[in-house]
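Hi X.,

You mentioned you wanted examples for the new student's onboarding notes, showing what a folding record looks like when two proteins sit in one file. Here is a clean example. The first protein comes first, with its sequence line followed by its structure tokens.
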Amino acid sequence: MVKRTLGLLVIVAVVAAGCLGGPTDTAPAESPTDGTTSISSDDVPGISNGSLTNASALARANEAALSETGGELTTSHGTDGAETSLRLRIAAGFSTYTLAGSFPGGGDQPQSIDIWSNETKQFVRSGTDGDARYRVVSREDDLPNTIALAERYLASGDFTVRNESRGDGTVRLTADEYTPPADGHGPFGEVSSYSGTLVVAESGQVQNLTVSAVDDEQTVRYRYELRETGIDTVSPPAWFDEFPESASLDPDVEVTVENSSYLAIRHQGGDAVPQGSVLILTTNDTTRNATFETALGDGDVRYASIGADDGALRLTEERPDDSAIEPVMSPVSLSLVTDEGVTIHSGGMAWESTSASSGDASGGGSSESAG
């Protein structure tokens, strides 16, 4: 029997791929200056001789200013009809924050995301069209990715000073040429046109950053706007009172593919997977569900297979008969969700096989809990 480990991906709250936000009705943040002092652009971190020459220095100054005062900002990124939009409200010192918004979910409906974070954990609620999912993940970084992402866009253009001092303690810069990143990890690929505007205070606190580029024949837009400053604490949002108890569960579960035909789900420690939890399996562009009729505790194993007769997903305590099942096709993704809607495990893998029963497979990795 050939066994391949299913490499499970920890679900993190941001989605990844950049946390962004959209337009609001909130009044713009007041400038951190009193609005009466003219400033020199050369006093702004990262700006020298009328140009933004060090995007990293400006990004660090912006982060330091937000850490000192706290603040609320919105960002947005994407193309028409596929935009990620988020609002971030963060306390001074980055001790607590809330993040709320939406991003493309792969279907007709956008995916919603809500996060409340204290100094050690992130409490996440996500879903589509009212179908909420909950999870708790460790807070790995002090800085939300929403803020860190701004550096990539600051470095993406040839920003030069347009207004040396606007009379409100800020400087305005514009850009009309794309600057490819030295490390090759910029926000764009094949850019045919580019424009950008940056408004920044003397402290380096970014007030507004907008970028528009035609990338691979698609118009991509990014917007960062500071809405408010002077926030000392951020309390849990109203939905936090409804956060399920099972969100604190942390099972140690390993999932393997056996004989390229079915999955083995092994409990190796930590909390049990509760009775009534659901295995959600996607393979060959089809999603199937199966319910744990009993809890999955320490040392327990459940085998997940697809019936050859009806195509239904089954969970059994015994290995299935190969002649009675349809082989699980690569790639696969799965999640374990409690009856309270809490995702306590999630991941996916791909493998190669000359046939479903040959055992000539490759791939794998380590299993990890999503909680």
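Then the second protein repeats the pattern, sequence line and then tokens:
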Amino acid sequence: MEEKILTAFCFTDIHNQQAMLDYPTTVRRSLIQAAALATEEFGLSDVAIVGGDNVSDYPHWNKSCALPKKNFLDLKAKMHACVASSTKDGKVLYVAGNNDMILGDIGTDENEPYNTTDFYDVMDGAFGELPDAEKLILTSREKPNELYWGAFHYVVGGIDFIGINIDPDTAFNSHEGYYSDETLVWVKNKLDEIDPDGHKCVFVVGHLSAIYYFNNGNLCETMANGNRELFYDIFRGHKNAFYLYGHVHGEDSCYKEHSSGAVLHLDGQNKPLGQNLHETDSRGKEYEYSFVHMGGLRPFGGKYFENDGLEGFGGGKEKKYFTCTATPRLAQFLVFEVYRDRVVFHVRNTGDYEGYHRDDKLLPYTVYFK
């Protein structure tokens, strides 16, 4: 049997929110389920990826919040323990989501404003401290005492992973954060450096979506802010580069029967190749690079949740019940396996809701290296 090089689990858009972030914090149930289901089917992974929007809505989703730092640290420890338990040796990569950024914008009586995307210490602990040349350090005008990783590069089992993060100065008191030109140029230069011939398998991991299948059928462009042309230009000339993303999630961003809906191949004009919703592999397709949706572990509408939500303050002044803290009935995550000549992608469900079941085994989609 051919030996597998690497197995990765991808969990994104967890949205631990509202009463879940009251102290002591509560980890979203769909993340716990996803980690357990992935491990049960595929065994322990070589690396797990958390795609951002780990926290949100305390109480706001689109402007500055004051999440106490002790609450964040409590949630961070619990969430990391959950995800790390699905790996062989604790290797977890974290990228920042736009919702993550705003929750530490306002200080409390116990802490100054702080960086709510700081998972750098747990990554250093698992992978070893990164040399300066392998990470881009950014500062924030509003939080001058905090350092941010704009981008970073790790190698896991011989496979390259580049993380790309939202610039903190674009995300202060805003839901509209984006990748800065400085960060995009760093990522492009790093990708060119590690893949000079354009045929190496490289995974670029970020939170923000670009083109994806909305409502399981219609292609939708979602990158409204930042230098979109420069973003797409990163991948040109790297035929086996994969951009893994989140940001779009919930009932309008799920896939049935085939995992291929999570994968888009783009041509030399940065346009997706036709329909890829009911495919099994990439053979016969001519393209320049690929985008892959990591799924999402929180839906939106109330009917997509169980009735086991939490009561709490959620950053507000009155105690109440929060529907969206309940266990999602509809949520998805991504698993991929790397072999010498291909990557195999699997989309999986955590809940059960009208055509989506946790026992579903969506047909895999195989991308053969060029």
